[in-house]
Write a structure and sequence with these properties.
It is built from four helices and nine strands; from the N terminus they run βαβαβββαβαβββ. The longest helix is centred in the middle third of the chain and has 16 residues.
Length: 190
């Protein structure tokens, strides 16, 4: 099991298959229920992630899916497989790392946990990209989420100009609008 950077408030560990039910519940709650500021319920219906999707990420050697588990003690030793309060994935490529599956339970949003999780994922990715020519951190967001774009811009991400229509393939939820686009954001690693 690969560990990420610990801070006094944050203890992340790599997801395990036993975490799949909790991750499915967290991702679908954060993205598809009308809860928290990060939800997409007005824009996309249906499910955000299936157990099969999550298992594929956990099993893919290029992916690192990290979870912030609920703990009884507040320490790494008190972590149990079960309740997951946050997650973030890093998909490693030769010169860039794609950050996705980023979710924080709505009851914890606005307390700085997401900032810490994103910083930890960026540090992890940057260390793994050491030596790459012009390493970059990449992600995508929905076009109709200006508050989310502003959040990432405050953290140094910039629009690349690349965009693609939101996939209407039944595997990513059902768009409630025909004009949804995914914007690509990027920043220099390190």
């Amino acid at each position: 099991m690969m560990a990420m950077t610990d801070t006094p408030q944050l203890h992340l560990r790599q997801a395990e298959r036993a975490d799949i039910p909790a991750l499915e519940a967290l991702l679908n709650h954060c993205y598809r229920d009308d809860a928290g500021w990060t939800n997409e319920a007005e824009l996309i219906g249906g499910i955000r992630a299936t157990p099969t999707d999550i298992a594929a990420v956990i099993d893919d050697l290029k992916h690192y899916l990290f979870v912030y588990p609920k703990t009884d003690t507040g320490t790494r030793e008190g972590q149990e497989t079960g309740d997951v309060l946050g997650c973030i994935a890093v998909e490693m490529h030769e010169t860039d790392a794609y950050i996705g599956m980023f979710a924080v339970h709505p009851s914890l949003q606005g307390q700085g946990l997401g900032n810490q999780m994103l910083a930890a994922a960026e540090t992890f990715a940057t260390r793994h990209l050491r030596g790459a020519h012009e390493p970059r951190l990449t992600m995508s967001i929905l076009s109709e989420r200006p508050e989310l774009l502003a959040y990432y811009e405050r953290r140094g991400y910039r629009l690349t100009g690349k965009q693609m229509p939101f996939p209407n393939d039944g595997n990513h939820g059902q768009p409630k609008r025909d004009d949804l686009v995914l914007f690509t954001l990027q920043k220099k690693a390190g």
